[in-house]
Write a structure and sequence with these properties.
The chain has about 120 residues and is an all-alpha fold. It contains 4 helices and no strands. The longest helix has 19 residues. The radius of gyration is 25 Å and the shape is elongated. The termini are far apart. The relative contact order is 0.15. The model has no long low-confidence stretch (mean pLDDT about 80).
């Protein structure tokens, strides 16, 4: 990542609310992605919220990518979009139970052909 013009954050970036054990330990990010988020995350968050203004071409392109995610080219942009999706998007939840439960009356429907007569 040394070939980037992107500014390092003033402090290391962590999200203790959504990723309390760290980005890599969450299982959603690789070690390289975690490094990108911790080093550049503070700057990326500032650019996204408008607290920082872009100072070079890479940062200007990053701001455009925030508005139009399909234009993401660099690893930094893709990692930030992945972070946004995981941190702010809805978490998928899979259950083994279905939503539709059969009616209780269906289980014990009286069928005259099954009734034994003495």
């Amino acid at each position: 990542m040394s070939d980037t013009e992107f500014r390092h954050g003033k402090k290391r970036f962590y999200d203790n609310t959504k990723f309390p054990r760290g980005f890599a330990k969450s299982g959603d990010f690789t070690l390289a992605e975690e490094e990108i988020l911790t080093i550049y995350g503070d700057t990326m968050l500032g650019l996204e919220t408008g607290e920082l203004s872009p100072q070079n071409a890479e940062e200007k392109h990053f701001v455009k990518v925030i508005e139009n995610p399909g234009k993401a080219k660099s690893k930094l942009e893709r990692v930030w979009l992945k972070y946004i999706q995981l941190a702010r998007g809805r978490k998928r939840f899979h259950t083994l139970n279905g939503r539709n439960k059969p009616e209780a009356s269906d289980d014990y429907a009286e069928d005259s052909s099954l009734v034994e007569e003495d």
